[in-house]
Automatic annotation (TrEMBL):
GO terms of molecular function: phosphorelay sensor kinase activity
Signal peptide: none
Cited InterPro entries: 2TM_dom, Bact_2-comp_sensor_kinase, Sig_transdc_His_kin_internal
Location of the 2TM domain: 362-437
PANTHER family per record: SENSOR HISTIDINE KINASE YPDA
Domain Signal transduction histidine kinase internal region positions: 162-240
Record-linked Pfam families: 2TM, His_kinase
Chain segments annotated as transmembrane: 12-28, 34-56, 76-98, 118-138, 374-395, 401-424
Keywords: Kinase, Membrane, Transferase, Transmembrane, Transmembrane helix
Protein name: Histidine kinase
GO cellular component terms, semicolon-separated: membrane
Amino acid sequence: MDTKDLKNKLSTMLWVSFATGIFFFAFFTDNKSVSNLIISFLVSFMYSFVFIIGNYYTNCYLNSKYSWIDDTKTRIVLGILSTIFVNVVLVFVCNYLNLIVIQKNNPAKFFTGEMGLFNWIIVNIALLFSAIFHAKGFMEEWKKSSKKEVVEQKLIAKSANAQFETLKNQLDPHFLFNSLNVLSSLIDENPDQAQVFTASMSKIYRYILEQKDKELVSVEEELDFAKTYTALLKTRFEDSVTFEFNVNENDQKNFVVPLSLQLLLENCIKHNFATSSKPLHIKISSEDGFLMIENNLQFRENIKESSGIGLSNIVQRYALLTKRNVFIEKSEDYFKVKIPILIEKTSTKMNTTKYSENSAYERAAKRVNELKGFYGNLISYCLVIPFLIFVNLYTAPQYQWFWWPMLGWGIGLASHGIAVFGISKDWEERQIQKILERENHK
């Protein structure tokens, strides 16, 4: 028992002793003297001390052996039995000291007559207070358990969200640097195709900035983006790489993690060689609730060590969203990855729509994400465009193609800025409110 707990118990004993001492002195003591008042108080303190300490240690012992939460039934049964036994023994001990030792009554009549009735009354009073004492302990343990569970769930949710954000934030530099490597190779091989690649790259990167903050996107959206991405790959590899899309229309309405196809297609290109005589065949299809990406295995030798971002990123993001697994199949002839198609659009975030305070937090978080998206877009523009200008002026200064991506991406960046800082949701809400007010005044 710690110091604070001891003080609380002592304070309770004193108040109970004072109240019961005054009660018995006023109604059950014939000689109203100071000495009898002191005796009444001391006897009441004896009862309070014995019952409170006895029940406290009984409760502590049971709590150390059986949990109110994990062993509820056992704890209740043993609590009832031990409470009856302990309190009956304590009542008989205190009553014997009070009635026989202090008041000098006949021990032979301890269980009969008025003393027997007094024993029965005190036993019931002791059991009543003991039941209240144990119920209080049960409620305290339950509250502690509930608070602990809430805190644990919040920590789990925060940890999952933080982990998910970390995984998603890997995608920006990963795609950007890989795309720049492709562009660099393409400039040497075919400058004309480099122009087409650069113009389309700005549109694709804008899509990535928009989708990376989502936990799930529809299969249809992901397929549309994958088709655009494969068109860019075709500009570089021409007939060395073929793509086949065969996804069920019903599956296209369901969901996958964003940019999963792009990462898997990128892995196919990265880890396999492709030539006109030995083309790389990549097939995207759906079967039994999975989206499958399969390619014939033409493993590229002397490949640089993988960063591990692509496939592991997809596996970890799915692990945070669902219990369904990502499957990887490999044989001598082919390599296949199967990612789950999710029917419901689940979320790792906590549901806070019931509370206005949490709704305000969500709006603030959404606003921060919008600002992060815009500044990420702006920083990428400031990094990529100067690089493209340098590449263009260094390789083909007679034809300044860098204007096209600079203007195209610039227009997209400007519209993004207007959406974030200009015509926002607040402006829409104000306009809706004005229209409603005008309608109400008509």
